[in-house]
Amino acid sequence: MSSASNAASLSSREVIRRRHEALAYRFCGPAVLLLGLTVIAPVLFVLVASLTDYRLGRTTFQWIGLGNYVTMFSSPYVWQALRNSAVYTAIVVPLSVFLALFVAVLIHGRTTSRRFYEIVYFLPVASTLTAMSIVWSYVLNGRIGPLADLMASMGLPRLDFFSDDSLALSGLAIIGIWRLVGYNVVLFLAGLTTIPAEVQDAASLDGMDNFFDRLRYVTWPLLAPTTVLVIVLNCIQAFQVFDTVAVLTNGGPRGATNMLLYEINTQSFGSLKIGYGSALTVLYLILIGGFSILQVALSDRKGES
């Protein structure tokens, strides 16, 4: 009797377990389907299309293997776009991170007006970048812009950022920093709330009253995980710059502001070379994936230490 009852109990448990598994699969099914249709399927299409000579509007195509990749890595325009993206990232990311950290520490120390400053610094993130690019085109205009007038009143030469190929990338970097600082401030403020007030009090008791010493030796080390996250996210966003290029420069003058994402758009929808544009997109996905893997690796390493 005992063996029969045990077998019946095990059988009922197995039935219940299978029912729970089936229910779990039903709940996961819509999410998996949505993920497959919106993420996995497009990536697979890009991978397959990059191996063809398909042009938008054609009904036929030919398999050319790695031909698009050979053309891509031998193109001076691609290397110029990669170089511009790297320089843009090298300018925007460090400045936006350090400025945001400094501003976040100042805001975190306020009590009455903290909410006001949080809103003010977050406004660039909430604004439409396309519309704000037009405003910046006026501000940085070398003939009628207020910055040029200010420099002229000081006896300095007028700078027309978007007409000079040596200044155009710097002009885009100014806009990028302006936009990312507010985003980074919010992330750093969230990180600052995790630092116990006792740590700051202990630093003061130890004689560390200087603001910059406390920031360097106490606050910033405790914000290391947040800093890693901010840097990686900023690198990804810097490589995704497109709106300001499309609105202000169209990649010019003389290719000085041609970015990787803008080159993808030009080849795919300007020249209608979907196959070649897909190869560029694969390169872009590899770079973005590399940044994401770096973030995970650094976060795990920090967690272990």
Automatic annotation (TrEMBL):
Its main location: membrane. InterPro entries: ABC_transporter_permease (IPR051393), MetI-like (IPR000515), MetI-like_sf (IPR035906). It is found in: Cell membrane. It is a multi-pass membrane protein. GO terms for biological process: transmembrane transport. The chain crosses the membrane at residues 23-48, 85-107, 119-139, 167-196, 217-239, 274-298. The keyword Transmembrane applies. One of its GO terms (cellular component) is plasma membrane. The lineage of its organism: Bacteria, Pseudomonadati, Pseudomonadota, Alphaproteobacteria, Hyphomicrobiales. The keyword Transmembrane helix applies. Keywords: Cell membrane, Membrane, Transmembrane, Transmembrane helix, Transport. It comes from Xaviernesmea rhizosphaerae. Residues 82-295 form the ABC transmembrane type-1 domain. Belongs to the binding-protein-dependent transport system permease family. This is ABC transporter permease.
